[in-house]
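Bench log, entry 3. Co-assembly request; chain sequences pasted below exactly as received.
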Amino acid sequence: MSLKPTHDLHRRRFGRNLGLGLVLVAFVAIVFGLTVAKVTNENFVIPSAEELK
Amino acid sequence: MTDASINTQAKGFEGDAGFGDYFALLKPRVMSLVVFTALVGLLAAPGSVHPIIGFSAILFIAVGGGASGALNMWWDADIDRIMRRTQSRPIPSGRIAPGEALYFGLTLSVFSVVMLALATNLLAGALLAFTIFFYVVVYSMWLKRSTPQNIVIGGLAGAFPPLIGWVAVTGQMAVEPWLMVALIFMWTPPHFWALALFMRTDYDDAGVPMLTVTHGRRATRVHILVYTLLLAGLAVAAGFTSIGGPVYLLVSAVLNLMFVAGAVRIWRRDEVMSEADNFAVEKSFFKLSLLYLFLHFGAVLAEALLKPYGLGGWG
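Structure output for the full assembly:
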């Protein structure tokens, strides 16, 4: 079976998938950064077990 | 239909839009204005936030602005196909299907509002939700095609980012960010009416009741002058408030002199004069309007950044 040459369509799809992948990685990094920023804030208090009930 | 349009539509059926096409749906040029004005609101606000929270707030405000841009393109796809200025947008050129843009815009709207509320506070999230609603439903769906006041009232949506940036830090309303809102609100009509003057028949062909279409080009020139004078008064007066200071006042005085001079030149011209030089004055006024807003907010930012050193504001 012969390999088909790369079509412009494949390049665009690859670009789209790569872009989406990078956006998702950036989102994970932002959520991680936000979590660190929130829990290291001096006003942050871990809720007690009773408060969580 | 030309061969070119057949080809682009055929591409659209393949569903092969690139990443850049989705990015174009977010109206990146409008987004840059949103980012800058929101950043100024955030940095000029009293108090501070963690840099990551500040960065996230600006990012989610930008995404919210972009989402409303995508929804606007979905709704306006029919008239975008007619106007030369917008024919190459992703939907009219066939690169993205209308339904795809709708779901893209809705998803990003919900995402940006929820994330902004989680990252900062509920009020900031609610203001972003209101801004998206106002731009998409009040401006795009209702005002744009029904009244020549579309730009005047609809401009409020584009004016909100500095308020959202401010509230992201403080969690509450104040007078200062509303002054910034008023500045953008009053700036929007002369900016867009100048564009409508030199885009000539675009709005007419699309049936959008811009002032140039409903009241004529002479009336539009008068309106530009009146709104520019009102804007100049507001912009200079803001220099004496807590967001202003000597730097702002100097920048604002120079810019408003230039802006009013430009509006007077537009007012004194007629269509024959404008066509003779291909709307050179109207085009330069439009370009100046972009610089006008950027430098006013730059001056607000400069005053805010100088304050910790005892230099900004009126002491």
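Residues 8-39 of chain A form the longest helix (32 residues). Chain A touches chain B through 15 residues (CB under 8 Å).
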